[in-house]
Design goal:
This protein is of the alpha/beta class and 396 residues long. It has 14 helices and 16 strands. Helix 2 packs across helix 12 and helix 11 runs antiparallel to helix 12. The longest helix has 18 residues. It is globular and about 65 Å long. One of its GO terms (biological process) is nucleotide metabolic process.
Length: 396
């Protein structure tokens, strides 16, 4: 029996990539880890340091396990696309589109599929579909990256919303289309929180739409992403159980247990319980999301407390791992809370691998995070992922 854990500390970058200027010039001074350490004097993460973070960031002595880092192969720095890459894809380069430029095309496509499409306001490029779903710009990401569909599940159940989302996805080349909603709101309330964030950027204020919480469901659709070539779907086809815990339950497609938890303590408790109770080969894909939220909040002290919590958990958990097991700890991009904006930063991410069979080796700088998905497939003797080069034979 073998188990593998992928623990993604969301947004934990270790320094700007060379091409950062092509994405955002301000990212070129980003170093999420070092700047948090400088800003919050109480950061205390000796376990991560000894696993290779110290060697990567500060030139300290090489650890007794495998370590390295990875570039982001996808354009920009995005949690959803980052996880698709980690799972074994290389998402296509998308384009930025605002609803003001594409609403006519989307309205026609939806009408052609039999949906009733209305404009609640003449002067706002926002669509209302079947009096149940609002289509607009995502106001929480960079302008033009994402189109949101926000629904009242009392009028449009989640499975119907996903079908609307698929039509939108087929007709727009933004990085993501997100379909979500809940049963404890109303379409009238959703419409009441539509506003303009930046000139021409119109959408629903999702936190105020009363969709989050009990009954909330979400479906992410990436541009040019082949989910069937990713580790979780390959595993599902071959009978390997994959637990998705934390944000991975939302951003990675798959089968098996899914726990869309945000609270870091609860994420780690569920991981440890699931790991202890699992009696067969299994993978655990886990995301610590609150670090990303702390980055968006530009709160280095909150970020540091979350890192301390994660490090303390790792210190207690690693000795409990069985002989055959593997854990890979990494990030999906950066989110430096100190550089004057609240967006993700294009940074290299650490890759730290541990386990009783893992040897001391530097796996170098990987060109794509898809190497991790490829490694997980080889670990479980599964067919290869669509993208990525396994480093399993280097580390065991």
């Amino acid at each position: 029996m073998a188990k593998a854990i992928l623990l993604v500390i969301d947004s934990f970058g270790i320094g700007a990539m060379e091409d950062c200027g092509e994405f955002s010039p301000s990212d070129c001074r980003a170093n999420t880890y070092k700047h948090i350490r400088e800003s919050a004097g109480f950061l205390n993460i000796p376990t991560l340091d000894h696993l290779g973070l110290g060697a990567l960031a500060d030139g300290k002595r090489a650890p007794g396990n495998a370590y390295g880092c990875s570039a982001l192969a996808h354009h920009g720095a995005d949690t959803y696309l980052g996880h698709q890459e980690i799972a074994g894809s290389c998402p296509k380069r998308s384009n930025k589109r605002l609803m003001k430029d594409i609403h006519g095309k989307l309205a026609k496509a939806l009408k052609d599929e039999g949906y009733r499409v209305e404009y609640p306001w003449e002067e706002r490029p926002v669509l209302l579909v079947d009096e149940a779903c609002v289509i607009g710009d995502n106001l929480e990401s960079s302008a033009g990256n994402i189109i949101n569909l926000t629904a009242d599940f009392n009028k449009m159940p989640f499975h119907e919303l996903k079908e609307v989302g698929k039509v939108v996805r087929q007709n727009v080349d933004t990085s993501r289309v997100i379909a979500f909603g809940g049963p404890y709101t109303t379409i009238e309330h959703i419409l009441s929180v539509v506003h303009e964030k930046n000139p021409g950027q119109w959408g629903v204020d999702a936190p105020k739409a009363r969709v989050y919480g009990k009954g909330y469901e979400v479906y992410h659709m990436g541009y040019g992403v082949n989910i069937d070539g990713q580790f979780p779907m390959i595993a599902a086809r071959h009978g390997l159980k994959v637990h998705r815990i934390g944000k991975t339950a939302d951003v990675l497609h798959g089968e098996g247990p899914a726990h869309p938890i945000v609270d870091t303590d609860q994420v780690l408790r569920v991981l440890e319980t699931s790991y202890r109770e699992e009696k067969e080969d299994a993978a655990f894909l886990v995301n610590i999301q609150e670090t990303d939220l702390a980055g968006h909040a530009e709160d280095a002290e909150w970020y540091a407390r979350l890192l301390n919590t994660t490090d303390q958990w790792l210190s207690a958990f690693l000795p409990k791992m069985a002989e055959e097991d593997l854990i890979i700890i990494m990030a999906d991009h950066g989110n430096d809370p100190t550089i004057g904006h609240s967006n993700h930063t294009r940074e290299y991410v650490p890759i730290l691998a541990a386990g009783k069979r893992v040897k001391a080796v530097n796996i170098g700088k990987r060109n794509s995070m898809a190497d991790v998905g490829a490694t997980l497939c080889e670990f479980f003797h599964l067919p290869a992922t669509e993208e990525g080069t396994s480093f399993l034979r280097q580390i065991l």
